[in-house]
Write a structure and sequence with these properties.
One of its GO terms (molecular function) is GMP kinase activity. This protein is α/β, with parallel strands linked by helices. The chain has 7 helices and 9 strands; from the N terminus they run βαβββαββαβαβααβα. The chain is 39% helix and 19% strand.
Length: 198
């Protein structure tokens, strides 16, 4: 089990927000993090994007149509929501709040726009950027996928430049040169000592 600051039910868990450019390996790092520490609450984002091969509804994302997504926005069900590469993404508010209230460290994997919204909504959240070892490495990852049209790849690269330029807005940066090491570094940031001690 994760060591959290426990009192008599007064533990306050840390909310960590992970962001980084497309192709940096967020899915691989999170899969390894799940293996290392299954007690962490991983928020499942809602998206209007179509599933990629191997993605499972309700596990990787909750896939919905645009109409359903808009209904959720109007009902105030999202902690944050944003548009990215022509698709909409949102973090359901209630499961995150329930996990934190129960004393579980929670992790959100969201885009830069959403991370900025969470910074406003939950100032205590720790923002972590997952960065590539080099720009060339990221380009190779994106062009090597072969699952998207070249125009889409070029648009993702342009967005990636903007995201990496926002590094100073984040509290920490984890470089994904090795998936296992990156996951371990992220885990240490999530459950390590707080600045405001016990």
């Amino acid at each position: 089990m994760i060591g959290t600051e426990t009192g008599t039910g007064s533990a306050r868990s840390r909310l960590t927000v992970l962001s980084g450019p497309s192709g940096v390996g967020k899915s691989s790092v999170l899969a390894e993090l799940r293996r290392q520490q299954p007690d962490i609450y991983f928020s499942v984002s809602v998206t209007t994007r179509k599933p990629r091969p191997g993605e499972v509804d309700g596990v990787h994302y909750d896939f919905v149509d645009h109409e359903k997504f808009q209904q959720m926005v109007e009902a105030g069900e999202f902690l944050e929501h944003a548009e990215f590469a022509g698709n909409h993404y949102g973090t359901p508010r209630r499961p995150v709040e329930e996990a934190l209230a129960a004393g579980r460290p929670a992790l959100l994997e969201i885009e830069l726009q959403g991370a900025r919204q969470v910074r406003v909504a939950m100032p205590d959240a720790r923002l972590v950027m997952l960065a590539p070892p080099s720009w060339e490495h990221l380009v190779d990852r994106l062009t090597g996928r072969g699952t998207e049209h070249p125009d889409v790849v070029e648009r993702r690269l342009a967005i990636a430049r903007e995201e990496l330029a926002a590094e100073k807005e984040f509290d920490e940066v984890v470089v994904n040169a090795d998936v296992q090491s990156a996951a371990s570094d992220l885990l240490s940031l999530m459950v390590g000592p707080r600045n405001s001690g016990d």
